[in-house]
Amino acid sequence: MSDPLEALRLPIPSLDPDPAFTTRLRARLERALALPPGVVMTETSAKTRPATAYRHADVGYAWLSVPDLDRALAFYETVLSWTVTAGSDSQGRQVTGRSPHLGLHGGAARGTLHCSYAVEDIEAAIERVRAVGGRAGEPSRAPYGLMADCTDDQGTVFALYQPPGGVGSEPPATGGHGDLVYTTFEVVDSARARAFYGAVLGWRFTPGGVEDGWQVEGVMAGLQGGHPRATTLPMWRVDDLGAALEQVRAAGGDAGEPQARSYGLEALCADDQGTRFYLGQL
Fold it and tell me: Does the reported pTM lie above 0.90?
């Protein structure tokens, strides 16, 4: 069996985003008008995140699936200063005051990020999911709007939600330490992924700087094909990359060397359970 952290000893490839895209990396998601499943509104999160409606196809909520919840809580509290509240079940927690809204969920076979996308019309979006080979549950109503659990045509779990006040029209505002600022989708077949998310969310893609790498236009995300299984890697924003890398190592994780990009500094890391992620000082 190969070492799951072997990738950390390799140079980090750049997807070479265009200047407009890299500028928007500095503007990351703030407080949504619609809260995703299981979110507990806290006094802290309400004061630190002004309400903003996410645009159609923006990630309005993301949850990190991990094998051991308690270990993940300790690790990300150390590295990203996350604090949490109870989630919808014993294995779930909601991360307070982060942008977009974030959750942690234990009991997974391996670590990966899952995303919930804001849509203008959830019924129409569900029909698109089914029409292009994915699976979508029926929408359910909650205080934060309508939501549906989905799976794409390659088996990746995601969700859709329709905010009660409608989607926004402006790019989200700047994020802070511990926020999700970029998402890298590693997929088996990039052509299928591009066709699926293009049809469902209206995403458009431009070639990136690595083999079978693609940037999602107007969205803080990139996609690369050719992987043995689908995994979604988050980039967490940090105030001081050097200090954060030391915290990763001190907490039992593995941290690569910082790499200079047009938008700032980044490093590929893995937590103490082998879940890979990027840290970015932007």
Answer: no
